[in-house]
Request: fold
Amino acid sequence: MRVLFPFFWAFLATCAALNDTIVDVQEERDDILSLRPLFRAWMKHHNISIPPSKIAHRLRIFAANHAFILSHNAQQHPRPSYTLGHNRFSHLTFDEFRAMHLGFTRPTTAFPPSFEEDETPQNDVLATSRSLRGHLSTTDKNHAIGMNTERFPPYTFPRPAWLPHIENPSSSLPPSIDWVEKGAVTPIKDQGQCGSCYSFSAVGAVEGAYYLQTGVLSEFSMQEIVDCDGLDGGCQGGEMQQTFKWMQMNGGLCLLSDYPYVSGTTAEEQAVCLPCPVVPGTAPEKWITVRRNSMTELQEAVAAQPVSVAVGASRAWMFYEAGVFDGKCEQELNHGVLCVGYGGGEGSEEGQYWKVKNSWGPEWGMEGYILLKRDDFDKQAACGIMEDASYPILPSVPGMTRNEPARPPVISQTDRSSGSTAGLNPLQGSATARDCGGSTAIFSNVRISPDAVEKNELVTVMAEGTLTKPTLSGMYTLSVVYEGAQLYSHAGDVCGNETVALPLNAGTVHVFGFACPANPGPVSYGLDVILPSIAPSGEYLISIKGHDQDNAQLVCIEADLKL
Reply:
């Protein structure tokens, strides 16, 4: 009997542990299921269709990403310098996202596997044919098309003619520069489900250089590169310096309007390389590789023109929403983007940063842009932005003179004296409020403040009017609807005040009720609403409807918040 005692206690301990596990699993399942209204609203907002058989799987991923976003934004010591939020990637794992939306690759050979043995040299069919994708060329073929057997010949750092010589760059460079504001950057685009980020980066650099040469801001074709560039891998990735080389060999680029981008939907190159007229002056004479890990030289380059850069985009990048990013990055460079400016410095709240144009659409990040921490001592602070930076030098175009016409900024007016980003706030929206009517409390004055809504900021709805009958007691129903889908409903007492915490840390609503018993005469009713940075962008309808002790409709107030 004594021998069995230890086994008995071990059996009880195992049962207890198993019961705890079952409880934990059930709680996790309940948490996931509670996200279904938010998930359905998110699908509607982003127009995402998921087969019924995959809904449960995608909901679990959505829940994991939701927890990741909440955990980051809830940090207090220290508070993070950037926020995360839901976007159209919220149903993807990072591995899935990386396969579909990145695409920077370093060449592994002296010359990329592009040219077939029987292909003719540079000035004949060139790299504009898809048949140029094949096995590695021989040394003779490399020589025939003018490529060195080294990866790329190094260049010194020649300043473009429009940038005066600077004896001491670190002290003489402008404290901030924003090529978006200066009119050298085209609108944000979306590479979609094609690993063509390198083409967006390289084309953006050429667009900026062409503007600085001619004063004309033109949009050039990324699809032409995806379909025709035999040095890169189409939707399977590429590298910006290889793309500059192909542009040089091709004689330049076509306009986007002549060769539109379609691979974001198809996730592959088109079957043929289409003919299109090349714009004179878009073929790089050469391209400059900025010295690796030199913040001063990258700053000097960006002060001259937009620069193609590679970064190690991470899971936190997927959900970046605002602020100066100093979070975890991937060790390997995996994404090509465009550095379009820098700012910050002494006295600024944000600290020093690089301003970067991405290719994931205008709903991502700060209207398509991200600010990366700029730090000369922490090379990984900006996700490897200083490791592989380059920009093209274009020829002058006869008959075209350079100028700098003013253009409204895409994101912000940057304070040139301090490098501040005080005006940069993509989380701002609008708000309106009204009396629904038909109640015994008639509110003739319903106001909302502020009417330009920001996440994490207090929004107050105050209704003032006349109570037409005595109110002794009653109940109200608070409803929160997102993009037409019911997210939350709560019942409370119309008399007195109450703070309602929305589920899943989605915000709070403080209700300012009646002082009961309330006699006929002047009366007020109000709400305080805070939606955190985790709240998905879109349209919210927050309504409160109440009835009195006689079940007569007492109050009906609605507030529309657009984030």
Observations:
- The two ends are 70 Å apart (CA to CA).
- Residues 430-562 form a domain with the Immunoglobulin-like fold (CATH 2.60.40.770).
- The chain has a mean pLDDT of 78.
- The CA atoms of residues 155 and 288 lie 6 Å apart.
